[in-house]
Each structure stands twice: as structure tokens, then as C-alpha cells.
């Protein structure tokens, strides 16, 4: 086994770097992360249909919108929360009732809903999702999301809701 | 300019515009859109195409005597194209268009289109009142607005994932920018700043 035999330069440089990092506050102490709530996105509520029914799937399917619903701060999964999904798809415009459907989260706070392929509309391939407190028990704030797909050819979209307790 | 060169220029122009329109007409997105949305989209493409014709009419490149009068009518056509574009989109999805007009849309391209639209409407008002404005104000105002219209429209069109095909859209956008810049340089409007 070789004994490390640092030069004076190494010692000074290492000690100096350690001092600099410690003093500059660049280190992050290990503490529990606080999960920030999802803010409502601009345009997220456009063409929303309050109370759209819970459906097995929207139209003929072929595209999957999946996601999770969690509580802000501790990230606990929220079961039985109603999420409405709508988009411009191969089967209809955003405003059409047949383009809308709702789904409930399972025990792990996960939702999955099959729907027709989302196609670019108004310049971007995007979906709309809503958590509406008026159609729930009112214990979390309403959130509207408008995620944009990375590619128009994508056949799924994953969305994460973090809800703020009222 | 000889007749042959003028004919060649017309042909090149018609080709660039026709290629963009024909390519857009092949877009698979059209099959999932209602007629009013399709008309709105194509009205936008026509507007972009008219922005290529407009500057060349002023420099006398496209035709001889009546070019200036044609320029005015093409300008009116441009206003109409934008009105149809916005109205058609409004019918298709009212809240999205309201967001754009209130400058709170999530899409990055819409602000460019909205600014270009207001600059175009301002130009139409300037043009109607140009005799009362005096030559200096009119020409400076029209040129400044034209820069905003051309830049805004090209960025707006380029950022949109829509029915336009990328190569023909890119070519048309570059031609519009080139024709605008070339005309501005040739007209030397900045002399009026002195």
C-alpha cells in the first residue's frame, strides 16, 4: 500500500477549494424535498367542459395519456381524484364533446386514459388536463395543464399533477 | 429591365408561392380539420405569399405603370387575408384567439403574429390618411411598419407546426425577408430621417 504523500501545492489547493465551496454556500444540506404545487398553465382551461363524464376511453383510442396526482409538500399519492382530458385529435376538435373524457386516479394516484391520436392544432401538438375542485371534494385547488408533446408523432403523453391543499 | 427578366421573375415568384400552397394542401393534418379551420390556415399562407409580392411591386420589378395601384389593392387583400385568418381561428377555438389578442397565449409564435397584425392595420390607417400626413411621415411610418409586419409574419409562420411543409415554408420565408430587405435598401427611406 502506498502512502499518499501530497505536495504542499496539493494541500493548499485542496484546502482552498474546500474553504471556498463551504464559504460560498454552494453545498446543499441533505433535507427532505418540499414538492411544489403545479401552477395552472396559460391557455390550459381553453375549451374545458365542466363535468365531462368519466369514460372507459375517448373515441377509438390508440393514444395514451397517463399521469400521477400527488399532494404538494409531501408528495403523497392522491387516490380517486377526477382528471379531465381533452385535445384536438384525429377524431375531433378540442371544442367537440366527443374529444373530452374524465378518469379517476387509482390507489397509487396514477391515471391512464386511452384516446385518439393527438394532432397539432393551433400550431402545437398539445393536450389539456384539468383537476377541477368543483367536481371533487373541494380539498385541493383547481389546476389546468396544457402539456406540449415533444414530437407530433408521439403516441403517449405523461403528465404530473401536484395539488395544493385548500 | 427587359421583358424576359421580368417574365422570369414572375415565374420564379409564382413557383415559390404555388409550391408552398400545393405542399400545404398535401398536409395530413387537413383530414382532421373542419373547413373553417382549413380556410383560416390557408388564408395565413396567402398573407405570407402576398408579403413577397408587395415589396417587388413598389420597386417596379414586377410590372410597369400600374404597379403602384396594384400594390394598394394587394395591401387591401393582405388586410382581408389576416381578417379571414383570425376570424376562422376564432370560430374554430374562441378562447385561444382571445388569449392571443390579449397577449397571454402560451404559444411563442402567436405574439409575433399579433404584433404583425396590428402593424398591418396601422399601415392601412396610415395609407388611408397619407395625403394629410405628408410624404416624410408616411414613408417613414410605412417602412417601419413594413419591417415589423415582415419580421413578425416570418417568425410567426416559421415557429408554427401546421400544414405548411418545412422546405417550401423556409424558402418562402427567406424570399419574403430577402425581398423586403432588398426593397428597403433600394428605396433608401432612411434618408428621410435626416
From TrEMBL, chain A:
What InterPro entries does the annotation carry? Intradiol_dOase_core, TAT_signal
Q: Which UniProt keywords apply?
A: Signal
Give the highest taxon in the source lineage. Answer: Bacteria
Q: Please name the Gene3D superfamilies in this protein's record.
A: Aromatic compound dioxygenase
SUPFAM superfamilies documented for this protein: Aromatic compound dioxygenase
Annotated signal sequence is: 1-32
One function term, GO molecular function aspect = iron ion binding
Q: What is this protein called?
A: Twin-arginine translocation pathway signal
Q: Which organism is it from?
A: Primorskyibacter flagellatus
UniProtKB/TrEMBL annotation, chain B:
Q: Where are the transmembrane segments?
A: 35-58, 70-91, 111-128, 140-160, 166-184
Entry's Gene Ontology cellular component terms: membrane
Asked if the keyword Transmembrane helix belongs to this entry, the reply reads yes
Q: Which InterPro entries match?
A: Fe3_Rdtase_TM_dom (IPR013130), TAT_signal (IPR006311)
Q: How does it sit in the membrane?
A: Multi-pass membrane protein
* UniProt superkingdom: Bacteria
Give the location in the cell.
Membrane
The residues covered by the Ferric oxidoreductase domain are 44-152
- Which keywords fit this entry according to its UniProt record? Membrane, Transmembrane, Transmembrane helix
Q: What name appears for this protein in its UniProt entry?
A: Ferric reductase like transmembrane component
Amino acid at each position: 500500500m502506498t502512502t499518499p504523500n501530497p505536495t504542499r501545492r496539493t494541500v493548499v489547493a485542496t484546502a482552498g477549494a474546500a474553504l471556498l465551496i463551504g464559504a460560498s454556500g454552494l453545498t446543499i444540506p441533505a433535507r427532505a424535498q418540499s414538492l411544489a404545487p403545479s401552477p395552472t398553465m396559460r391557455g390550459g382551461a381553453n375549451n374545458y367542459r365542466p363535468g365531462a363524464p368519466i369514460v372507459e376511453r375517448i373515441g377509438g383510442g390508440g393514444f395514451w395519456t397517463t399521469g400521477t396526482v400527488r399532494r404538494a409538500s409531501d408528495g403523497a399519492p392522491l387516490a380517486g381524484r377526477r382528471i379531465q382530458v381533452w385535445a384536438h385529435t384525429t377524431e375531433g376538435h378540442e371544442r367537440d364533446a366527443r374529444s373530452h373524457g374524465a378518469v379517476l386516479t387509482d390507489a397509487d394516484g396514477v391515471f391512464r386514459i386511452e384516446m385518439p391520436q393527438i394532432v397539432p392544432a393551433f400550431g402545437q401538438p398539445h393536450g389539456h388536463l384539468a383537476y377541477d375542485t368543483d367536481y371533487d371534494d373541494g380539498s385541493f385547488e383547481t389546476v389546468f395543464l396544457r402539456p406540449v408533446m415533444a414530437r407530433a408523432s408521439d403516441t403517449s403523453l405523461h403528465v404530473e399533477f401536484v395539488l395544493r391543499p385548500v | 429591365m427587359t421583358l424576359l427578366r421580368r417574365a422570369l421573375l414572375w415565374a420564379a415568384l409564382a413557383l415559390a408561392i404555388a409550391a408552398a400552397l400545393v405542399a400545404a394542401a398535401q398536409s395530413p393534418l387537413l383530414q382532421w380539420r373542419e373547413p373553417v379551420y382549413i380556410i383560416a390556415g390557408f388564408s395565413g399562407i396567402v398573407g405570407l405569399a402576398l408579403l413577397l409580392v408587395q415589396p417587388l411591386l413598389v420597386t417596379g420589378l414586377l410590372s410597369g405603370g400600374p404597379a403602384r395601384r396594384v400594390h394598394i389593392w394587394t395591401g387591401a387583400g393582405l388586410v382581408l387575408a389576416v381578417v379571414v385568418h383570425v376570424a376562422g381561428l376564432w370560430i374554430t377555438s374562441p378562447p385561444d384567439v382571445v388569449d392571443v389578442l390579449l397577449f397571454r397565449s402560451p404559444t411563442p409564435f402567436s405574439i409575433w403574429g399579433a404584433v404583425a397584425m396590428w402593424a398591418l392595420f396601422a399601415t392601412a390607417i396610415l395609407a388611408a390618411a397619407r395625403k394629410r400626413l405628408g410624404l416624410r411621415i408616411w414613408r417613414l411610418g410605412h417602412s417601419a411598419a413594413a419591417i415589423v409586419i415582415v419580421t413578425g409574419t416570418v417568425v410567426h409562420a416559421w415557429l408554427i407546426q401546421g400544414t405548411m411543409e418545412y422546405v417550401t415554408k423556409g424558402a418562402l420565408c427567406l424570399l419574403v425577408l430577402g425581398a423586403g430587405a432588398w426593397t428597403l435598401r433600394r428605396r433608401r427611406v432612411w434618408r428621410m430621417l435626416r
